[in-house]
Amino acid sequence: MIIAGLVVLLAIVGVAFLLRGGEKPSAPAETITPQTTSPAETSPTTTQAVSEKPRLTGNIEQDVVSIGNYLASMGIHEAKYTVWAAGDPNSVLRTLAIVEAAYRLNKILEQHGVDFKITVEQKFKRGGGDQLAEDFAAAFQSQANPDIMANSYKHIARFADEGYLLDITQYLETYQDFLNDFYQSLLGAVRYKGKYYGVPQDTEARPLYWRTDVAACIKEKTGEDILAGLAEKIQKGEVTWHDIYRYAKLAVETGCSEWGVLHRKGSAHPDLIQFIYAFGGKLSDPKTGKLVLDVPAVYKWLYVEWKMARDKLIPEDMMSWDWGKQIHPSTVSGKTLIWIGGTWHWTEWQTKPYYTDPQTGEQRPLTAEEVKKYFYYTLFAAGDPGNEPVTLSQPFVWMIASNAGKDNPKYDELRDVYQMLAFLLVVKASDPDLNAIHSIISAHLPVRKAAEQLISDKAWVEKLANLEIELSPEVKNAIADIVKATVNEINIEFLASASKMLAYTHLTPMHPQYPQLASIFADAVDKVLRGEMTPEEAVNYIISKIKADPELAKAVEIQGEVPKDWQFP
């Protein structure tokens, strides 16, 4: 029977062989052993079919599931990303929102039974974004850069030209509804040479803050109420920097404050750049696409700084003061009449212990009630009569590195898939509730219409105040103290009021050489404050620095002359 069975089997095999034209039967499927090069990578099993390579559809749930399934089918069950950001102490959602985005996308993946997850490593740096930008550029050379960075839009032009940023134009065209919810005026901050290289994260206005107690002291000693109708007078151009000089002098000469005006340290961008616009100047020529050194406006700006420093109304070493030890403590303690600041300072003063309590001698933050009591705010005043008041916005934006996802398995093969996933992280991090939370706790202005609607929803704001909102435990714990200190009616009212200033806002040029020009401005400001140069010498110094750099010389048009008949104050 056994022999008969073998004969039958051989006959069947022989027939099959003839029917296949003599072709040998297929070998058994090869058993693939998982590789150990990465904990995130395992080889697909013999029963796992490789999915079709995904494409974005504009539906984030569908897209993340498609990407997750595809990578899982390739034996990859985890993708890792890094995000860097800089800012004031309350702007932690510039990184944490990406962490939250991963949490939310992972929940979607889990609900659909996809064996794939996203992890995010974040680094938030206190301070401005210029150093972070340099760190990013240096890290890119060794492929150690983050996948996503939140920084000033001013860096986009340079980084796009150098190939550091991902062109996300096609992605955003697919996510048109998402794009349309952003305020259109802000989209220019992420568009360069007709392409999109980022997504707006926040924006702000830069008011003049006036100490009400110093103003009350001036009124008591001189009879002049400088705050009476001041916001409206500045808005109408009736109060200019000529008047502000006089008010600052009154404050110091009467002993009501130690200083008349304090401003940022280190750089001229963006706070001090407002002087150029306030004196009717410009920074670029849309016809030529070049930067502009507007000599009359820059001269007047430098003259105001020089004159105030000579009259002891502003510190000669202002550009080297320490933020936490000198600038903010002096401002919140009433040692200056005017602070040239930003909307975010309104809540920063409520969370950082800059103020020394006169009763206890202990350092503590101000309460919301104290900030409202002691600070009156206005637009940045016009330079001369006939000029217009201004403010300046510096939107922070999320930029995706052109090598996003580089630290993940099979990157060369799956680069475009990892890039799409990085984009989805940014989309999810821009959820209206996350944008609204960031706006409230950091006093930045929302960039999405849906976020603004949430901020005006009292019931939602109350839930936020009680942390009764859907957030990952990690993010909720990280922002709990800031939420407790900042989510209140006073700050919501401030946001609504400050948002109106955007009607007067300017954006600095989207040009790769602009940061370099702004750095030269900062040097010039420092020199005139210290009395090392006169304003005219400082203008000539700026011109010489421009001409000494061939690339900068090509990029900058020098327009106008130092005004000979202008007087200040």
Automatic annotation (TrEMBL):
Biased composition (Low complexity): 33-48
Gene3D superfamilies: Periplasmic binding protein-like II
Region (Disordered) residue spans: 24-48
Pfam families, per the entry: SBP_bac_1
Source organism, top-level taxon: Archaea
Entry-linked PANTHER family: ARABINOSE-BINDING PROTEIN-RELATED
Annotated protein name in UniProt: ABC transporter substrate-binding protein
Species in which this protein is naturally found: Pyrodictium delaneyi
